[in-house]
Records
---
Amino acid sequence: MLTPAQKTNSAALAFLAAGSIWLLVGTLYGLVSAIQLVAPEFFNNIAWLMFGRSRPVHVNTVIYGFVINMLIGCGLYYMPALLKCRLWSETMAWWSFVLWNLAVISGPVSFAYGYSQGREYAEYIWSADLAITGAVVLLAINSVMTILNRKENFLYVAVWYFVATFLWTGFSYPLGNVIWHPSTGAMTGLLDSIILWFYAHNLPGLVLTPLATGAAYYVIPRVARTPLYSHTLSVIGFWTLVAFYTHIGGHHIIQAPIPSWMRNIAVVHSMVMAVPVFTVLANLWLTMRGAGGRVLADPAGRFVVAGSIWYLITSIQGSAQSMPELQRVTHLNNWTIGHSHIAVLGFVGFIALGCMWHVLPLIVRRRIYAPRLINMQFGLLTTGLTGFFVVLTAAGLIEGHGWYNGETVYRTLAEMPTYMGLRAAFGMSIIAAAVVGLYNFCMTVWRGEPFTPEYVVEPEEDL
Amino acid sequence: MKMTPAIVIIGSIMAFWASMSVMVIMPAITLKVEPSEIWRPMTAEEQEGYRLYVRNGCSYCHSQFIRVMDWDLGAERIAQAGDYVDRGPDLMGSKRTGPDLSQEGGEHPDDWHLAHFTNPRNTSPISVMPSFAFLGADSIRKLTAFVQFEGMLMADQRVERQRHWKEAALQTYGKDLDSHVQWLHAMVPEVWRPMPNPYPALEADLARGRKIYQQFCIGCHGPVGDGRGQAAGFLNPMPLNFTVLRRHLVDNRYIGGLLYYQIMNGITGTAMPYFKKSLESEKIWDVANYLAVSFIGYSDANIEPTGIDASYEPRWQNRFQAPDGQGLSDERDSVGR
């Protein structure tokens, strides 16, 4: 008899469940932070909810807890499915799950007591860094072994992205978190910023983007019921992603005194990021050509398509923002916060949710409890995030232009309450989406109507 | 291109290492940064304060570098690579909800920081910074030490200036309030003293002044201008009670120039900061008029000497009686004379 840990796709389901829960926890911490930007004494002197401690819990829980958990869960299902085999080791995947989520739990626990390494996106304490590295290494081994033991000779593009994520992150994470300095988790001097932002941009670049792209490549052809448009575009998109994205971290610090050759590299590569972005988007959208109605009518497909549109917006923004002239106004203010939210929640989060709703019935062999609740979640998320993006971008422009016009930060602060209030309000719409999603997830697992998924031919490509 | 497992797996790893050698290994080898001319190491206490800064997420709202285009900050010192030697992590920051702190040292005396860390609204009424009272007095002392270190040797000079003038201010403050005010006024350059407020004290001017007062001054000087705002208990000397100024008018009629100068430049050594980077000329004159009218009960707005009136200013006649009861002799029409 199989133990639960050996049951096919049980680890994938665990990752998906964790992602759904962390979405709610992470966004609640987001609200706690947002409230303090409009009512700073709301949680006055409650140490564990203080802004400087709740903000990193929000950021790390949403990134590591929600999107990455959910996309790993999706991948652990679609990778073996595309390779027509089983995951090499379900037990090993469970260990990855445990290690990964211990690290995520360490966020709210350790940050609350002021145990944080303080470097943005690399705050987790040393032991959590070790757990994440361990989880990534196990996932890399598991993915590579699954590929080597596959029954289907052809490697579909989603598989490249999924396995490469762990191969890259296995190096990128310990390096960026300076794991060989356990006490500070940091280098000293400017080199620390250079390494931090190399890693911090590899987090969206080599973790979130490939996982989300892989998921989109899996869902869109299946929902559209057409083969992928172009293998060549897949290849270009994949290799240019790792070639360009890894060079652009410096655009976070081009206004700081880093060597000019690093600034030049960062700006140039931020511009040529157009290549991986547009090849992937063209490939996905041309795959949908003629089947757009079908994809948009599918609740999961709609999420993925919307995610691809957020990807377009956030990528154009990302490239443009790296230009020194524009960055004079957009850097260091709420503009950037708007940008990061449409990247993580819009692009990656939407695709993660879309792919999750697509694979969940295939994993649990139960139909979605209430497809209308998926649409409701979509509406709540879209409303919340769109409002959020508009409000934060407007606020950022006010701050950025004010400063550039010689106003002090304290003067522009007086303009912020309206925007910060609206931002918190739109945030509640996002939290409502998390609640609806979690409810629908649980009800699908427990009460969904059982069915046997029809055999679906996996997407084929022209070689 | 056929994507075999070998190409995907080995190729991905090679591509990553290629970029990493450019973006990490190359800087690690070639970046040789000498300490800049303002650099100095942190003391043990400043180091502990910096750990608190790192662990409590201060860097989410405060940057640690002044950019070329930051002329709101005056840009007296643009960040240089040599400023960050030995600092780990160096936490440049990605967002300014609050001001940049890389040159914060010596901008305020320690007692201002105690009031501010205990509750930032004490000194900065519209601040959204969290209160740090929960950290306890010892940690606030360490954080203050670190903040006073920010700017290193440049900050040390400013801290020294604060110390010098605090000593001077406390000498007269320790005697009695009137000699303290006399000393404060003596510290204002002569040309500023017999200077009336060149703006009329119209309702609109006073409303603007009131808004500025509430955003900038009320925490220390209090809602009725008696110097008993919520920060007052932390500060030594305590904030000024404006009513006292009624018996310290220059030539028994001028007060505008004194107020303007002290709001503009602050009173280094005391908790009174300079506001010239945040408030431009008219706003300072407006707030001077507001506190003169509201708390001194007399304003020298628009009295002689005057020049050609600004075209937009409506007809306004100053009917305030000077405190000696003799009234102002130069009643005049503000359009013609």
---
Amino acid sequence: MAYEAQYYPGATSVAENRRKHMSGKVEKLREVSDDDLTLVLGHRAPGSDYPSTHPPLAEMGEPECSVREMVEATPGAKAGDRVRYVQFVDSMYNAPSTPYFRSYAVAINYRGVDPGTLSGRQVVEARERDMEEVAKFQLETEMTCPALASLRGATVHGHSLRLPEDGIMFDMLDRCRLENGVVIMHKDQVGRAIDKKVDFGKPMSEEEAAKRTTIYRVDNVAFRDDAEVIEWVHTIFEKRTAYGFKPE
Amino acid sequence: MADDRKRMFQKDLEIKFTKAHGDNKMEGGEITDKKVTYYRLGVDQNPRKVEMRKAGQEMADKRGLVGYNPMMHCGGIPLGQRALTPSFISGTDIMVESDDLHYVNNAAMQQMWDDIRRTTIVGMDMAHETLEKRLGIEVTPETINHYLEVLNHALPGGAVVQEHMVETHPALVDDCYCKIFTGDDELADEIDDQFLININKQFPEEQAEALKAAIGKTTWQAAHIPTVVSRTTDGAQTSRWMAMQVGMSFIAAYNMCAGEAAVADLSYAAKHAGVISMGDMLPARRARGPNEPGGISFGHMADIIQTSRVDAEDPAHVALEVVGAGCMLYDQIWLGSYMSGGVGFTQYATAAYTNNILDDNIYYNVDYINDKYDGAANKGTDNKVKATMDVVKDIATESTIYGIENYEKYPTALEDHFGGSQRATVLSAAAGSATALATGNGNAGLSGWYLSMYLHKEALGRLGFFGFDLQDQCGAANVFSFQSDEGLPVELRGPNYPNYAMNVGHQGGYAAITSAAHAGRGDAWAVNPLIKVCFADDMLPFDFTAPRKEFGRGALKEFEPAGERSLIIPAK
């Protein structure tokens, strides 16, 4: 019988959404053009070549190495791209994703990525074109609501703050705004002004966000009510504790 | 029970988030609101920031070199894009500006650390034995009193046996002194009151009896060198300064020869053989001597804080005061300055002792435990519940979920603890302390701490920051392993314990767990009865019975520190 990944326990919609994020089988909700993505990431000018840190691998004459033979390099590594980042901030008010589930989604479904998980933000470093693929995947799918999540390279404050009246997660640097019913980004990840308003589409309604979210909340799906997840946490905890038990 | 309960943080958050402070326009709304208006008023909204900006401008004009300028923040977007709000010191009615809880801006915080760093405990018995057996000198209560009179002249920097010596000005070192304590009531009766830490007077009867039994007929000096000396040098200086002055005082008080070989024996016995530092020396990679914060074990911290002798019937309160002191010293000063630098650590630490959010969680736990486990959270030994995995799971889970739900039901509480590291510390400190209170077992409390971390991470899909998460996700495996470098009783762990060395915000929590286990049992001390008695001294500038209140007084500029230099600088 072929192994089928189970990803995550739990019988609630939050648990189901967590499984979806981890599996990578998430719904595409919007289009973001390559140029728009490049603009908001802010690492290079749209249309410009990828800066490189070394020549393409094919030209480098790599040493004999069984690991290199077994593991094919990613497109970015083959081309010699520099390593760059994309960093998301997700509101605790039912943003679809959460830092750990962004990390799991990326680490499970992409190669050559280095996710970093914090409470207010989640960063992925990878070769630039590989990173862009990862960023686009997250921005275009149900993993991201443009009102409750945003790209923030620095000054990330906002994930735990009350929402402003327009529902756009607080951003000290005011990178995103609601204009004519859609969320636009007029600054790049680190808050530098860009010469275009990049349209990320309509915010999710409160109901839709509550349906798609991966965070437990007492006013939506309470963590207390997902007994299977709590039992699983207890099991992990007990096993880790017993693993180190040595009273002498 | 959870929903019916009036939260202890309610009043604090209402004042903080629904009342105007300065010009921050925070009037109105409810602390349960999920939406708010962000006025982006910058630093103009806050009186302290305005004062600081003015000081920065004046300083730049005076010295001709620019300095503090809030417009340097984020390329011209100053702090205060959200409302700048004050906080309450937990357990008090003291409202403070957040800036005033940075230790640089708070004289009480500085003095707490000064008073610990400049303290050493020195045994007298070996010195007395050497005097009697090696030199044939009789030691009596009268000679001890005389010696202490000499020492209290010499310890601050007075000369005793040499001619033509420079001395320190007494008004600069007036915080320096030495008292003694003993478990021998007969000897204590003979000691001049001014020199004695009276265990019978300072501790409840039960604790006093336990302390005296542990100390027995031994006698110890609680020596506090001048704050100004300790600030100018370092913690390792404390025992050296003490040693030199103790040696000189013995020579003077007992009319000894300054050069004979027997005095070398006395010197060792009096100065080095029975010395107890507040903190151990750290390994070379940390490069700190004894009596620096990285070497102060959690057990020592639990003993330094004195709430256990003035409010013994409320062990949760004891643990909460240890949280405050521990977060301040370990996080704000040790990790925040010695190990890291900068200003960011203050807000990790203050979350645990402001606005009663942690207090609410712990007192909720006390009620939960007392209901479910027949009063196990009350002070006592016969009432404790056995430390099993089931008990750890039950208490830590209930505590953590209650705390998480508070953040969800009260968005202003979440906004107050805006970083995951703050929330993780508070939730785990509550879970760990509660488990320790109920079981009287510090390592069971520590186990509850780690379970809380796991539950928090799974509930919210986030925890703290990179390294913080790492340490909290691997720690459960060494809670019950006592192999060298893998595990220790929590009492003997400290800031330099493997995995704790960069554990921001946590170390006050670990100290609280230690404290909770022992205060919950009604123990007179956690690790060292000598340290507990040494700090049971009302003459110390910092009141170790109420560290949180002292921090509040510091923030209000009401705290009078020691070691000031106004005597030797131009008057302003």
